[in-house]
Structures are given as structure tokens and as C-alpha cells.
Design goal:
By secondary structure, this protein is an alpha/beta fold. It is built from twelve helices and 18 strands. The chain is globular and about 75 Å long. Bound molecules: adenosine-5'-diphosphate, aspartic acid and magnesium ion. Adenosine-5'-diphosphate binds next to loops.
Length: 412
Amino acid sequence: MPVLVMKFGGTSVANLDRIARASKRVAREVANGFDVIVIVSAMSGKTNELVGWVDETSPMYDAREYDAIVSSGEQVTAGLMALRLQEMDIPARSWMGWQVPVRTTSAHSAARINEIPTDNIAAKFGEGMRVAVVAGFQGLGDDGRITTLGRGGSDTTAVAFAAAFGAERCDIYTDVDGVYTTDPRLTNKARKLDRIAYEEMLELASLGAKVLQTRSVELAMRFKVRLRVLSSFEEYNPEAGTLVCDEEDIVEKNVVSGVAYQRDEAKMTLISIADRPGIAAAIFVPLAEAGVNVDMIVQNISEEGRTDMTFSCPVNQVARAEAAMQAAKTSGEINFHDLVADTGVAKVSVVGIGMRSHAGVAAKMFDVLSREGINIKIITTSEIKISVLIDRKYMELAVQALHDAFELEKAA
Ligand code: ADP
Ligand code: ASP
Ligand code: MG
């Protein structure tokens, strides 16, 4: 029988009623003739609570124990969903990551999936099981321990299963009815897109649109998984949601198709470091080893052989970054006068494949921000996106102003 993957995010399994509601969706697809692989998240808020407990117990935690703890939310929802389906007389069972097994790297808290053997689940389907409820987000590391795939990782579990099983489609059920031109919680002018190209979705996701985890879009693009984002709260409709697909399959083409933001960024500046060959490596290698995700980087003009180096990273990694830099200073690898952290910044980005063939998007973006009196601290660009780092207090204003200026509320 054809296989369908259905993923339910935290709000879609937030309590027993919601789990029952989601189970009805699953039952409908079983009736439609699919063998279904359901991927579940933890109940909404659960993972945050678990992460909070870890932080409170050990701020510089051992990531292997972090994974043992934060993966547990998905175990509960997988079991509950399987029980609910059994109550509906649908042959179903739960699978934890290690039981499948979802084989991953041992990069704890940010593991990548290496392989998903299909034989165990396929054999059960062969014996008449109709639904495999798999705990998302978790896997079995090549060190033999439980891993997690990074926040939002259940999306990636879902796409990886769809690729491994050659699924008909991968449906991501969430609390919005599709992918919008920007976060619909930020402006009511956000418009739902019927389709979005893999590449644009990849940029939007990596720039902060958390509706899909970045890695899930990467996998969907690579394995040509038909990926659909839709609401678990609306009535069943086979046309619902947003399809993430190839660029060629899209008629509507705006120059800019979306605006994304990352709220909790920090800007760090190393003041007066020696401007010599190897200095960037001497800074960024220890940061990488400390697990700091450096994003934007600017090296300022050098004067008398000294320069300033500025970079951005998530605000919750500032302590790690500071510790790594102080350690590098103590060991003599680098020398700086001061390390200044600005923890009140955010990143706003505009994305669109139309930028490849249209000049002037950056100029327009900077003009819009200047009219709003918003100062830009760092700029980065790629072929299909422009990002700026600004004061966090202007983030909503910037997103709304850009959404208006690029007329995203109107279809092309
Ligand atoms: P789930 O728990 O189902 O995985 P998430 O909270 O991870 O859900 O992702 C859904 C949320 O993503 C929405 O509630 C919305 O606020 C946010 N979001 C951000 N950008 C976008 C966008 N461009 N389109 C749709 N949703 C977006
Ligand atoms: N529960 C995990 C998280 O909140 C994974 C997911 O929901 O995708 O990040
Ligand atoms: Mg999510």
C-alpha cells in the first residue's frame, strides 16, 4: 500500500482532545488506503519546560544528558497517539527513535540523520499494522546514545521518513494553515502562499521562519519529497495548505516572496585584535569548538596593525562565546582589549528567487529602513536574500514596513 507521512506539531498534540482530533485525520488517510507513518512532537510547551530544567540544573550542560531529557516529550505523545488509534480499532504501535532505529551522528542536541532502515516498520505493515507512530526529534547516535535533531527537529524526522519510505507525500500539520509571506503572528497582512519553491523555503527557514526546520527543507529538496504544510484545526480538504515544490511548478512570481526574522540575536565585538594572517581562524575555530553558531561576520578597517572583529550569534550562546574568547586570550592564541556584547539585536531578512534577475532590492530595503529611522548594524547578502541586523525594539516595525514596501499582501 502507498505510504503517507503525517507530522503533528506541538499544538496539534497539546492535550488528549487534540490527540484525538489528530487521530481522526490519521484514520481518514487509513480509510483512503494509505499505510501511515505519523511523526509526533512533544505536547506544546513540553520541550521548553525540559530545556528549562536542563539549564537550571547545569548551564554548561553535557549535551548527551540534554538529549536524554529533552527527547522524552515525544515518547509520551507517540504512546498516547498509538493508544488512541487502537481505541479506534486501527492497528497501530509507537516507535521510539532508537527502535526504528533512526541512525544519527553523535552531535548531541544538533544531530543529523544518517540512515533510516525501513525493514522493521515495513515488516509490521506487512503483518497488517496500518499506522506507525514515531517519536519525532530523536534518534540513536553512532555513540550508542539517544540524540536529538535540534529545535523543530520533528519536521526533519518526518521528511527523512518520507524519503526513506518513498512516501506519496509528507504532510506537516501545524497551528497555521500554511506558509505565509511572513509570520502571520506578526502582521495580519501576511498572505498565505499556495506554493513556495524549495530554495525560498530553505532561505526563509534558515533565516528564522520556524514553520519548518531548515534541515527538513534541505532533505525535501534533495530527495524531491512532496512537502505540504497545513493546519490540523481546519476541516479536511485535499487542496489545503502550502505545497513546497520546484521553482518550475510555480506560476506566481514575486521578486521578494517573504520576510523572515530572528528575534534573539546578539552582536559581539572583539576590540583591537592583531590584524595578521590566521586571526580569523584563531577566533572562529574556538567558537565553533565551543558550539557557538556564528552567523554574520564583519572585520573592520585596520589601523596600525590592529582591527575590530564583529560577529553575531544567538543570544543564549553569548556566555559560551565569551568563555571561548577569554580562554583563547589566556592561552595566548588571540589578544584583544575588550569584548563587547550587544544582546538587544534582531535579524530581519527579505527572500525571493526573483532577486536573481532584479536589481535594486537591497537599495529599496535600506531606503525603507532609513525612512523608519532604523539603524543597520550589519548587512549580509546572498543570491536570493538580504539580511540586516538591527535593534530588537524595531524588529516588528521593520518586518511590517518591508512587507508593505514589497507589496507582499498582493499576489503577483
Ligand atoms: P509546530 O509546533 O507545529 O512545529 P511551530 O511553532 O514550530 O509549529 O511553527 C509554526 C509557527 O511558525 C507558526 O505558529 C508561526 O507563528 C511561525 N511562522 C514563522 N514564519 C512563518 C511563515 N512565514 N509562515 C507561517 N508560519 C510562520
Ligand atoms: N519538540 C521539539 C521542539 O520543540 C521538536 C519539534 O517539535 O519539532 O523543538
Ligand atoms: Mg516546529
